[in-house]
Design a protein that fits this description.
alpha+beta; about 45% helix; 7 strands; single chain; five-stranded mixed β-sheet
């Protein structure tokens, strides 16, 4: 189990490295959709497997609903990556990542905000949930 946890942690460093490269090339101030397309290219170049705009099923009282609920990226079936290009990360953005992680039963999530001067220090936040803790 410890090796699985290390695999997830190593993957998150690769994801953040790819995001830093996109930010280094483009800087802040663009639309989220631009960063998303560039990050998809960066993931491909780095041989990081991902699903983009993954529809997340919502089940309510036994009914699967068509809600158009989507996460920006699901990376290697292990990490949810949600992108923002906003002045501030709000608690609702963090809740969104946790919801995606819990619904999909994914152990780790990364919230990336490209609208910052330095992405490494201020533009990314990592989350883990009980699925990560179960890897011990």
């Amino acid at each position: 189990m410890l090796s699985r946890r290390k695999e997830i942690d190593d993957l998150s460093y690769r994801i953040i490295g790819a995001a830093i490269e996109v930010h280094k090339q483009l800087g802040p101030g663009l639309l989220e959709s631009v960063y998303q397309k560039c990050l998809a290219l960066e993931f491909s170049d780095r041989k990081i497997e991902f699903k983009q705009e993954l529809e997340i099923p919502i089940t309510y009282k036994g009914h699967v609903l068509d809600t158009q609920f989507r996460c920006d990226f699901l990376v290697e079936e292990l990490i949810v990556v949600e992108l923002k290009a906003t002045s501030d990360i709000l608690p609702i953005h963090e809740a969104q990542v946790f919801n995606y992680m819990n619904i999909l039963k994914i152990p780790k999530g990364i919230l990336i905000n490209f609208n910052v001067p330095n992405l490494f220090h201020h533009g990314q936040k990592t989350f883990v949930n009980r699925y990560y803790e179960e890897l011990f």
